[in-house]
Amino acid sequence: MLRSLLTVGGWTMISRLLGLVRDQLLAFFLGAGGVQDAYQIAFRLPNMFRRLFGEGAFNAAFIPLFTGIFEKEGRSKALLFAGRSLSMLVVWLVFLTVLGEIFMPQLIDVLAPGFRHGNLHRYQLAVQLTRITLPYMVLICAAALVAGMLNGRNHFSAASAAYVTFNIVGILSILAGAWYGHDDIAQAGAWGITLSGGLQLALLLWAAARHRILPPLCWPVLSHNIRLLLRRMAPGLVGSGVTQLNLTVDTIIATLLPTGSISWLYFADRVNQLPLGVLGAALGTTLLPLLSRHASGGDRVAMRESLDQAMTYALLPVLPATAGLLATAPLIMSTLFGYGHFTLPDVVNSAGCLRAYALGLPAFVIIKLLAPAFFAEGDTATPVRVGLMTLALNLALNLAFYRPLAWLGPPLASAAAALVNMSVLMVLLYRRDLFRPDRRALSQAGRILLAAMLMGLCAWAVTRTVLWDLPNWPGLLARLIGLMSLIGLSGGLYAFLLLALRVVTPAQLRSFAERRLNRRRG
């Protein structure tokens, strides 16, 4: 599992870093004003459907079924099931896309209720840009299904690498739009989103053909397996996508706040998504097929051991990432985005949002780890009940926070809802005897937390004494060197603390390095 986790995590990290470059260009050229707000709304809608129908509920129900059919009935039956699933998914999403294109003004009224009564240009631009980006939903969800087939057969590299093209196309489209004008950047970026969906689908179909698991073209038929897929998928639409739905609620509330709030939330969330996307996506992608195989064989002991192991792998990077974001948020935002049209107030406000999101980062990641345990056993009803509860809690907290706390309200509400979601899932899995960390595992988690807290305190002290003037340093290179030096020193300190607290031992490190070296030689 660790090898697959590193493969997916590595490609995801490359994608996130390219995404960071794309976001830097957006911040530089558009700042945090009305045009940026409209562009982010245009991306939010198809991205939400991608998470729900593509990576979320559909794949959560599809991968265990596809894996089980492949193992028990053979390749041809599994590919026929995949082809019918793909055709059903595409027909449904094309129908939604046509409706969305027709009723886009009304859709924007729901997704961004503050736009129509505020800046009229922002509202009209949001309608125009969302009409451009909506077809991306069909393309990327079809791509996610093909990626699920590849992941279900342990071909993780091709699926993870294909998603890198989204940010490459995005960077090129924004640079192309910069030749023409302010609004043209947003339009070019919107067209780049849709184009990237088609390119990702083409690359994944090519990879599936290489591995002889290309889904055949066929009409959607309501076979027994398709009906089973629909039954498992329906409740999971909320259960597996609760994080995305919570972020959408944040966006809706943010449209009622001052212009720029959507942009501050977006850039803060994007930085928070670096560790969340890498760890969450890697854990969810690699753990679900593994747990599905254990569940199909009735091996609950192996499921429990896999969850315990994945929890350790998650805590080792996510806790120091959380501590680092809390300690250095202003430095991070000023270094990454504090140029061009992204002003100092934008940096300060987005840094506050980043700290609020970071409070829930461990919960966001661990939810990605716990949910596959339910999905692997075909239980999508339990996560949906928990999801509905936390979604309602997030909405209530948003309504309570957004007036007194303004733009800090939505991220704090999301963090609190995620912590509740994680806690409830842990209790339910504990009762099912699927998540029962022993005393050794709890002790190790406590020592990891202690090491992360000490590292975070040291990073905060350095920012207050040595790098306090970093936001005013001239030039991107100087700021990057200062920030990367701090990250490198903090990482070295964290590694020393892990050794000192005996979370890992030198012998374990040597053994891991030798295994990696032998695998490369082999």
Automatic annotation (TrEMBL):
Segments crossing the lipid bilayer: 52-70, 90-112, 133-150, 162-181, 188-207, 242-267, 273-292, 313-337, 357-376, 383-402, 408-428, 448-468, 480-501
InterPro entries assigned to the protein according to its UniProt record, in alphabetical order: Lipid_II_flippase_MurJ/MviN (IPR051050), MurJ (IPR004268)
NCBIfam families attached to this UniProt entry: murJ_mviN (TIGR01695)
The name this protein goes by in its record: Probable lipid II flippase MurJ
Keywords: Cell inner membrane, Cell membrane, Cell shape, Cell wall biogenesis/degradation, Membrane, Peptidoglycan synthesis, Transmembrane, Transmembrane helix, Transport
Subcellular location per the Swiss-Prot or TrEMBL entry: Cell inner membrane; Cell membrane
Pathway assigned in UniProt: Cell wall biogenesis; peptidoglycan biosynthesis
Domain of life: Bacteria
GO biological process: cell wall organization; lipid translocation; peptidoglycan biosynthetic process; regulation of cell shape
Similarity comment: Belongs to the MurJ/MviN family.
Any single Gene Ontology cellular-component annotation: plasma membrane
Chief place where the protein resides: membrane
Membrane topology of this protein: Multi-pass membrane protein
GO molecular function, one term: lipid-linked peptidoglycan transporter activity
Function: Involved in peptidoglycan biosynthesis. Transports lipid-linked peptidoglycan precursors from the inner to the outer leaflet of the cytoplasmic membrane.
